[in-house]
Request: fold
Amino acid sequence: MFIGREKELAFLESKYSAENGQLIVLYGRRRVGKTETLRQFCKDKPHVFFACRECTDKLQLKSFSEKMLREDIPAKRYISQFESWEQAFRSVTDLPSGDRKKLLIIDEFPYMCRGNAGIPSILQNLWDEVLKDENVMIILCGSSMSFIEKELLAEKNPLYGRATGVYKMTEMDFYDAVKFFPDYSDRDKVIAYSVLGGIPHYLKQFDPKISLSENIKQNILTKGCVLYSEVDFLLRQELRETPIYNSLIEAIALGNTKLNEISQKSLVDDTSKTSTYLRNLVQLGIVAREFSVDAGTKERANTNRGTYKLTDNFFRFWYAFVFANYSELEAGDVDGVFHYSVEPQLHQFASLPFENVCRQFVRKLQQANALPFRYASMGRWTGKTTVRDTSADNGTRIAETEIDILAVSQSRREYLVGECKFKNKPFSYSEYLDTIAKLSPQKEKADFYYELFSESGFDEKIIEAASNNERLLLYNLSDIVSGRSDIA
Ligand SMILES: Nc1ncnc2c1ncn2[C@@H]1O[C@H](COP(=O)(O)OP(=O)(O)OP(=O)(O)O)[C@@H](O)[C@H]1O
Reply:
């Protein structure tokens, strides 16, 4: 069953119905669902779908010719193979499609270019000369992010400026991801998303008919299953020096977030080298460099600033529980690892991804105009604040603090402070007071709203406070997971 991807399909449809030739580049990390989305898009349209292989240029041209000459085009009557790529690409204009667009999809386009570096310039000449004015749509698809971003779309590339649309596919959001296990409880949906993230290939490995625990055991921890070896496979495919990347990712998974911490922990010990390696992981969509929501452009440009987080939930899980227990799992002790390592920590492990789910929920509220104001930026806030400390001389001290969600309006006169709790007890009134205290010094200058998100509800005192305060909004797990915007 095909799930989600409405935005991607709407983008492709809008290009399909536009006049003039369309040259589209669609790319994204491996397993993100590019091929499946393209198949869904073209399933009710006349089209040619060519998947490039890693092979010589001659073989590629031969396979491409066979594919095109299977269509009812004039060339099939007098040749059995195209002599050149120029001739082959030109034949797109002959594809029979009635009055619809002639649609050619080239999947794994980087393989084609690897076999023949001249392909982009052949395509560019033909595009300028003929194709751009024809009723054609050519989609170039690829997963090699560095090739697409640094070469194909770079200024020096012949195809630069020709593409009429460029779309980078990213992982599914929480709301689409949980459609892979519709019968799970809300709590298990959050935990399953915390384990697998939004990559459809990973989500698909879970059997929605069996429990979350059984799925983790059978489909991640058991040697031989797809997800057991996926991380290794992906790193080997995309990067050289996998041992170094392994130690860097493990360092981040263990909670090291700053460049020098990661450098020391992974024993790379050279921050500029570490920074280069991390950049590659960011490009692959495995790691993200985060800044406090109020960080300026100067801070963001400084390579030593920012904190690193694993954005890919599955990688985070894999390094925390598979990599860390590799010998036991290799020996087949799945139940032992699950019982002693995964089960006791799983709930706590989900609390960080839960914050991300709540941010996605806030974004939904904004899209539905269900927030008290429109925010211009939203994210985690980190900074210094004054906290109560009875042991200090004046009863207070300055401490580093974090706010899970801070949304700020364009005028910076409205602030929404969100706190997320994924735990087995209700959000308490004193935790609410702690939240209020975090940004207290600036409060007089702006309007503050509080939104609290809790897995296990709220204590009576907060519920009463919220009933008398329209600037305090409470959201339960079922509100957040359903994504409904009419509850505020
Ligand atoms: N929207 C979706 N709904 C359901 N299953 C999906 C969806 N997208 C992808 N999948 C499944 O996830 C797996 C990976 O998808 P796909 O092959 O399209 O990814 P890709 O980005 O083309 O990967 P690669 O670059 O590694 O070839 C496939 O088994 C596919 O069936």
Remarks:
- The pocket of adenosine-5'-triphosphate is lined by residues 2-5, 28, 30-36, 143, 200-201, 204 (CB under 6 Å).
- The first strand starts at residue 22 and ends at 27.
